[in-house]
Amino acid sequence: MPRLALTEITLSQFRSHARAHLSMDERPVAIFGPNGAGKTNLLEAVSLVSPGRGLRRSAAPDMARAPGALGWKVRAVLRSLRDVHEVETWAEPGGPRQVRIDGKPAPQVALGRIARVLWMVPAMDRLWTEGAEGRRRFLDRVTLSFEPGHADAVLTYDKAMRERNRLLKDDVRDAHWYAALEGRMAEAGATIGANRRAALSRLDVAQQGAETAFPRAALALSGPDGADPGTAEDLAAALAAGRGRDMAAGRTLTGPHRADLEAVFEAKDMPAHLCSTGEQKALLIAVVLANARALSGAFGAPPLLLLDEVAAHLDAGRRAALFDEVCALGAQAWMTGTGAELFKALGPRAQYLEVAEAGGASTVSEGAIP
């Protein structure tokens, strides 16, 4: 089976790591150490082999080690399907993130053609109970994992909407200005809606018949009228019809930027936001695993999985079940926890790294099998 795995990664002046060089095989990676030692910083560096701002959604200058702000660099050797690539990404002081693949400058979107990366961080434990923006961002990240071009549609839509909102706030009433912007929003918005629906369909198929200890999540798009726009013509008509209302509000009230992701614990027919904390975490894991299974077929190999503090809210049984799922999938999962004992059920199926803090910098060493 083709694999996707990092076999080397080097961090230079990245967050709490002055310098770290790691060599891995294709097995899962269990990272343990006290809070604040720099475990999540390692996962963030790995997340940068994908397009975007990484699992913390940080601006490039914020990733530089302080004090000093000398800039930072991450270099990785990536085994992708049957090829091997060298990925370098960095930022000079105050500058944007840059990417080089196999020694040649490349746009970030090119990373999506050679790697797929999924992550789950502690802040996502509140996904089902907080505002729609976080769920929408989560859904778009899922969608992007299947369709790297989704990011371009989102950027196009957001740029046109910002310009339209500026006209609304300035009480501009020239219909020609609105028609031009709404045309761009409609084309991009229809693409966004179609991509999201396709992603949800893939997740649904991936959950069907899966032998798993994690509950099935029934997922659907919801939101106010026009949040899932259908055709470009439908969205253009809705935007034109809503100009008066939008002008009163000073912002656009129709379109895919208003969509929400609805989840139901299917076995209990219970909305996710009404479930227990443990059930909500299990539903989130179920969706991430479904995403990974679907990507295995779509991309040709399981994605890299980044699971930060994954043991939180999971009992020993569910923890062991998660490890079994990861190993059965064949994914190189990077998992963090405060103690090696949390990964006991993994045994020799994983490689272990211990992260500590010494003299104001993170250190990484090989850890023993618990």
Structural summary, described in words:
With 370 residues, the protein is of the alpha/beta class. The protein has two domains: 1-128 and 302-370, Rossmann fold, CATH 3.40.50.300; 130-274, Glutathione S-transferase Yfyf (Class Pi), Chain A, domain 2. It has nine helices and 15 strands. The protein has helices at residues 39-47, 111-114, 132-146, 150-169, 175-207, 232-241, 243-249, 277-299, 316-329; strands at 3-14, 17-23, 29-32, 72-81, 83-91, 98-101, 104-105, 117-120, 217-222, 260-265, 270-271, 304-307, 333-337, 351-358, 361-366. The strands form three sheets. A six-stranded antiparallel beta sheet has the order 2-1-4-5-6-7, covered by helices on one side. The chain is globular and about 65 Å long. The mean pLDDT is 93.
Overall pLDDT: 93
Helix content: 25-40%
The residue ranges in which pLDDT falls below 50 over 5 or more consecutive positions are: none
> What is the CATH C level class of the largest domain, in words?
Alpha Beta
In angstroms, what is the radius of gyration? Answer: 22 Å
Taken in chain order, the helices and strands follow as EEEHEEEEHEHHHEHHEEHEHEEE
Number of domains: 2
Describe the sheet with the most strands. 6 strands, antiparallel
Q: CATH H level of the largest domain: which superfamily?
A: P-loop containing nucleotide triphosphate hydrolases
Please name the CATH topology of the largest domain: Rossmann fold
* Class from helix and strand fractions: alpha/beta
Can you list the strand order of the major beta sheet?
Answer: 2-1-4-5-6-7
Overall geometric form: globular
Q: Please provide the count of β strands.
A: 15
Q: What is the tally of helical segments? A: 9
Instruction: Quote the beta fraction.
Output: 15-25%
Question: What's the N-to-C terminus distance?
Answer: 28 Å
- Assign the CATH architecture of the largest domain: 3-Layer(aba) Sandwich
